[in-house]
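in:
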């Protein structure tokens, strides 16, 4: 009898497994990327959404068919193999998977990235309790980026944590916005390269200055040594922080004068205009040109945002005016147009028509409104007024302590039509300001909340996303006090731009 019961139990278990398996397979077939992140996160006890945010910051979740980035990174997790960094080989050691599979197979690559991230967390002493708090992983994320300096490590990790606060959707994967307080540890003392108060560019007032390694360009005295008569447009084949770090790596043997970020058009100068950057693959064109790198990948149009186009066009216009370069396609060219070029950037997704219209000033008709904390602005008496920070927009800004009640400050605008709008915010940053300030956007489908770390990145416009907004005169963007983040919540200014 016992044997019969055991046989029946075994048969039932088999039936249950068989019954469950098709559903599991269907889920994996429908959303293979989501299933791969779930599996890797569970296998190595890392936060699933944090792992996904790293991948999105690096590659927008695109493995690029196993092709490496400019710095030798592979797959959606950007596992690097170059003369100074060997996370690809580390992932192979940790997972037992062959390097070839980690390069080309997305599920294996994500598993490898999770293993590397967990190994860094173990080195930092994150115990089981700490691993459950996404904010405690900040230092591990900073190290995962393999940046050349603490400042660049912070830039890299801040980009990942910004994605957690804003949320994102791509390729069947959704990461919802959430409150998270990044525990920066020693990186809190590193210079905030997102802030507009960092070292100014020597040649372009809207850029920050982070010099490339001196072995990656040729010192010169242009335009007296060589005439400057070209602007060359490039795509980084990698992330903004990763590209800046790579140009600082003495093994790179490559550089560009400027690098521009996809999300908000932030610009960093790395080689003086007077010096010859090594970007064109043609010495004559190197000597006569300014090279501009744009964050992203040639094969993925999602990187080429309106904010990037506008920021780059403003820079190109400045360069052309400064050096007397005609604003036409003979003198503003892609890397692929350089004689003897083996590169294809900026590629088929780069919109030259839009870009050149911005360069020449013909694309300036887009509606935009900036609302400061006066005029079309309302807030309760609980919101104080301060002019303490020099990073403020206008004469002052509003602040309030976080409480378990919304009590929002609202910015009002009269939108000309229903459509897609980019929303940017301006706030002064300070270690005493809020680590997860809730911004409410009144979209056509209801209010959406995203979270911004106001301890960093202040003194400039920061994009918090693109939203569908209804036409009319109404409250559009609010700043709520209801947050578990620490520090004063700040309401300073917003900018709303129709796309």
């Amino acid at each position: 009898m016992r044997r019969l019961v055991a046989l029946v139990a075994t048969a039932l278990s088999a039936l249950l497994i068989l019954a469950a398996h098709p559903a599991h397979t269907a889920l994996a077939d429908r959303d293979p990327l989501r299933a791969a992140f779930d599996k890797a996160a569970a296998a190595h006890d890392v936060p699933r959404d944090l792992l996904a945010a790293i991948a999105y910051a690096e590659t927008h979740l695109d493995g690029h068919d196993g092709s490496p980035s400019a710095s030798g990174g592979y797959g959606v997790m950007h596992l690097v193999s170059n003369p100074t960094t060997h996370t690809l080989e580390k992932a192979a050691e940790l997972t037992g998977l062959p390097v070839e599979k980690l390069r080309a197979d997305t599920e294996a690559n994500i598993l490898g990235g999770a293993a590397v991230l967990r190994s860094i967390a173990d080195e930092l002493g994150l115990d089981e309790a700490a691993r459950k708090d996404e904010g405690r992983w900040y230092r591990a994320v900073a190290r995962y980026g393999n940046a050349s300096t603490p400042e660049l490590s912070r830039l890299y990790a801040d980009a990942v944590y910004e994605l957690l606060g804003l949320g994102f959707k791509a390729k069947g994967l959704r990461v919802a916005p959430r409150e998270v307080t990044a525990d920066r540890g020693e990186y809190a003392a590193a210079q905030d390269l997102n802030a507009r108060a960092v070292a100014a560019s020597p040649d372009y007032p809207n850029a920050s200055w982070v010099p490339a390694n001196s072995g990656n360009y040729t010192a010169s005295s242009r335009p007296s040594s060589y005439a400057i008569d070209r602007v060359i447009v490039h795509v980084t084949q990698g992330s903004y922080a990763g590209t800046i770090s790579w140009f600082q790596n003495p093994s790179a043997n490559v550089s560009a004068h400027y690098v521009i970020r996809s999300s908000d058009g932030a610009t960093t100068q790395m080689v003086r205009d007077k010096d010859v950057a090594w970007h064109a693959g043609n010495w004559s064109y190197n000597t006569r040109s300014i090279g501009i790198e744009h964050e992203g990948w040639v094969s993925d149009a999602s990187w080429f945002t309106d904010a990037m186009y506008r920021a780059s066009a403003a820079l190109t216009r400045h360069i052309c005016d400064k050096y007397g370069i005609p604003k036409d396609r003979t003198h503003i060219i892609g890397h692929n147009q350089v004689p003897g070029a083996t590169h294809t950037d900026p590629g088929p997704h780069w919109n030259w028509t839009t870009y050149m219209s911005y360069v020449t000033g013909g694309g300036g008709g887009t509606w935009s409104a900036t609302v400061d904390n006066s005029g079309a602005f309302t807030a309760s008496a609980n919101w104080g007024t301060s002019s303490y920070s020099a990073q403020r927009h206008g004469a002052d800004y509003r602040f309030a302590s976080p409480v378990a009640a919304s009590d929002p400050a609202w910015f009002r605008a009269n939108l000309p039509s229903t459509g897609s709008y980019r929303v940017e915010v301006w706030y002064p940053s300070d270690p005493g300001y809020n680590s997860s300030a809730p911004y409410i956007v009144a979209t056509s489908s209801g209010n959406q909340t995203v979270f911004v770390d106001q301890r960093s990145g202040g003194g400039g416009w920061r994009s918090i996303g693109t939203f569908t907004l209804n036409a009319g005169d109404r409250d559009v963007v609010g700043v709520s006090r209801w947050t578990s983040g620490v520090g004063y919540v700040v309401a300073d200014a917003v900018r709303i731009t129709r796309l």
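note: The CA atoms of residues 6 and 12 lie 10 Å apart.
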